[in-house]
Design a protein that fits this description.
- It holds the Pfam family HTH_WhiA.
- This protein is of the alpha+beta class and about 300 residues long.
- The protein folds into two domains: about 190 residues, Endonuclease I-creI (Roll); about 70 residues.
- The chain has eleven helices and seven strands.
- The strands form two sheets. Strands 4-5-7-6 form a four-stranded antiparallel β-sheet. Strands 1-2-3 form a three-stranded antiparallel β-sheet.
- α2 packs parallel to α5, α8 packs across α9 and α10 crosses α11.
- The chain is rod-shaped.
């Protein structure tokens, strides 16, 4: 069964690869959040068949090149690779880096000036290094990369776009994450997965309805238990009065109330009040019960 993250990536992969600038920005996000990106190798590993189908089209459009290595399924993992030096130099050059220098991966914001390119970049980052938890369990979305400087700059980009990311180091990885459902919904909608965002909203509403129903049921049960405990206390007190011969000495109204409680031990005070002849208010019945409890305590 496909995971929720898998469904999100499936939806993102249905976004067309059209404009060159956006294709390059998305491929840029893929490279920064993929497995390996260096002057000597590009290596991308995925378990998403949809992403695997998208990658060759994306790199052909973005850089005009094909992968040197295409997937041979290895325990569900699909591996793409580029080791050809001329192809690597072309990628590095088109992303604005200097092929002659050591590649320190940072974000070239010159490629992300337009909003559509920023969106495409984040979509690529999520497809390569992102995950999102099933909203039925909890709310959590993260972007995971081995490039610390790039991660800091992507966090700054997200903040500039109005999102509020958190950052953490986990082992050798830099992780940007979100835990508030509204932020996850907004981010998924922005990068091209509005249906997944709607699934999160629906799950949240369902949770709120279930939680409300549970709270109401718990409150009802608490009230029922409170009524039962009070009735039991009253019944025990009246039985003590009866066993000690005090019941017959009580005023008529108190004696009538005591006998009603013995006859209807499960009823609430409101129900007992209606049984009185003539009927009385709940407040009156409560006052009589307090008098009976006081008489019992005297014993």
């Amino acid at each position: 069964m496909q995971s929720f993250a898998g469904k999100v990536k499936n939806e993102l992969c249905r976004v067309p690869v059209q404009r060159l600038c956006c294709a390059r920005a998305e491929a840029y996000g893929v490279l920064l959040y993929g497995n390996t990106f260096s002057p000597t190798e590009v290596r991308l590993i995925t378990e998403s068949a949809d992403f695997a189908a998208r990658l060759p089209r994306l790199f052909q459009r973005a850089f005009g090149l094909k992968f040197d290595r295409l997937p041979e399924e290895e325990r569900g993992k699909l591996i793409f690779g580029i080791t050809d030096r001329s192809k690597l130099d072309r990628i590095i050059n088109q992303l604005g880096y200097d092929p002659r220098q050591n590649l320190v991966l940072h974000v070239n914001f010159g490629l992300l000036e337009d909003e559509c390119c920023r969106t495409a970049f984040l979509r690529g980052a999520f497809l390569a290094g992102g995950s999102v938890t099933d909203p039925e369990k909890r709310y959590h979305l993260e972007l995971d990369t081995g490039h610390a400087q790039a991660s800091r700059e992507v966090a700054a980009l997200l903040t500039e776009m109005g999102f509020l990311p958190h950052s953490v180091r986990r082992g050798g990885s830099s992780v940007i994450y979100f835990k508030q459902s509204e932020h996850i919904e907004d981010l998924l909608t922005t990068i091209g997965a509005p249906a997944a965002a709607m699934d999160i909203m629906t799950a949240k509403v369902d949770k709120e309805i279930r939680n409300g129903a549970n709270r109401a049921m718990n409150c009802d049960m608490a009230n029922v238990n409170k009524t039962i405990d009070a009735a039991l206390e009253q019944k025990n007190a009246i039985q003590r009065l009866q066993e000690n011969g005090w019941l017959e000495r009580l005023p008529e109204k108190l004696r009538q109330t005591a006998l009603l409680r013995l006859q209807y031990p499960e009823m609430s005070l409101s129900q007992l009040a209606e049984k009185c002849d003539p009927p009385v208010t709940k407040s009156c019945m409560n006052h009589r019960m307090r008098k009976l409890l006081e008489e019992a305590k005297k014993l």
